Predict the 3D structure of the following.
Amino acid sequence: MYSWQKLQWQQIMQRASLPHALLLRGRAGAGKHDFAIDLAQSLLCSNPQQTKACSACSSCVWFKEGVHPDFRLIEPEDADNADETSKKKTTKKRQISVTQIRQLIDYLNLSSHQVNARRVILISPAEVLNGASANALLKMLEEPPANTLFLLVTSQSQRLLATIISRCQLIEMPLPNRVEALAWLQAQQVNHAETVLDYAGGAPLFALQVAEEGDVSIELVKSLALGPKLDAFSCAPLFLSTGMERAIDTLQKWIFDLVAYKLSQVLRYHSAHDVALQALCKSVNLKALLSFQDKLIAAKKTANHPLSNEVQLENILLQYTQLFKLI
């Protein structure tokens, strides 16, 4: 649990009884997954200390080792697929499959490790449930097993079935204020904390990831600063190395600042690149920029779809270079 999550922790732990399902919702990079892990361990701890796990009992030892019999973590199945001609990794499938949920049903039909003990099921991120797995989970939430808590974590609740959301109690997970976020990043020994926090939209864990990637993030922005001179085909693998969703997110932030500077000469994410953005704004069509923004939003929705991401990203980057020819 991070310092900015204390209120949410208290709200949960002070309840006389917990519901059968909690939905932790908030911005990416707010620390929701870590909060859910800490919550699961504390709820399963045999000897909690002031609502927190003791870290010493057998239950905590099992949890840390990933073998607790009354805890299940359901995460996306990752499958790297190689293009047969290029021999490059072009697709990373990130979905929670119906098979995983069916295996969970089989697990819940077994008795808990201890008589009448609580079981905790963590599903993170819940938005990558596909149609079949979401419907299978919904059936469990409609008739929840006894002494079982479902923890769902999401940064994109709009992708969840409305019926799943309605069967969970919602917990809004906040971002810290800027002062607290900067203090946390500085405690992690992050250089240029203000710059990476701005780029991460105020999300400290995302900012930490950006800082750890270092050169990759810098190279992505340098490539976009080239505008019409960017080579879509040579740059696509670099963008894809961060994952399709992150690649599109990088593009969205850059386009956001192009639009913002075009309209009001204000930057949100790339203040260190104001000269490049100012130059590009002189040769870009606002209507084309806004249309490209819409295309990126559509692409973000299918970022985890098992298509050839490299070809798709090449096409997106090619469209980006063409923005500067539509004056």
Observations:
- The first helix runs from residue 6 to 13.
- Confidence is low (pLDDT under 50) at residues 79-92.
- Strands lie at 21-26, 71-74, 77-82, 89-95, 119-123, 148-154, 169-173.
- Residues 285 and 327 are 5 Å apart (CA to CA).
